[in-house]
Design goal:
single chain, alpha+beta, 3-stranded antiparallel β-sheet, flat
């Protein structure tokens, strides 16, 4: 499964990253990045897709600020 990372400015511009009619779904963000999944990440209905949808929610991600 693909996880996408965007800078805040990129996300605010509304990234177009595929031919899907909707954009990526935001999972979370910190002060520098937005973490998202592609619009059609679960469209093939492979075994386990329902469980994946239950697990992969904004509440399941805890984005921390990067450290130097």
């Amino acid at each position: 499964m693909s996880i996408m990372m965007f800078g805040i400015a990129q996300w605010d511009e509304g990234p177009v990253v595929s031919a899907a009619p909707i954009g990526p779904a935001r999972l979370g963000r910190n002060r520098k990045y937005v973490i998202a999944v592609p619009a059609r990440w679960d469209c093939d209905f492979a075994e386990g897709w329902e469980e994946s949808q239950e697990i992969l929610t904004p509440e399941s991600l805890h984005a921390f600020a990067p450290t130097k």
